[in-house]
Amino acid sequence: MTRGGHRRRTEPPAPLERDDLALLALVAQGLTVEAVGRRMLLSERTVRRRLRTVCSALEVATPIEAVVWAVRRDLI
């Protein structure tokens, strides 16, 4: 366990695709779901679904946690 009582992951999370990292980079810039969709030529619904998929793959609860995960690993 780490400080704060959180368990450390014993296996690395699923690797992210280039598009997933681009999505997280736009979220990190503070863009809304609508703005991210416009930039990536996706519907808002698709952006939300992809964010949920990324969060699930990284085993985090929110897109912000996913952004933090990527930033800490110098991926975005």
Automatic annotation (TrEMBL):
GO terms for biological process: regulation of DNA-templated transcription. It holds the Pfam family GerE. SMART domains: HTH_LUXR. Residues 13-70 form the HTH luxR-type domain. GO terms for molecular function: DNA binding. This is HTH luxR-type domain-containing protein. It comes from Mumia zhuanghuii.
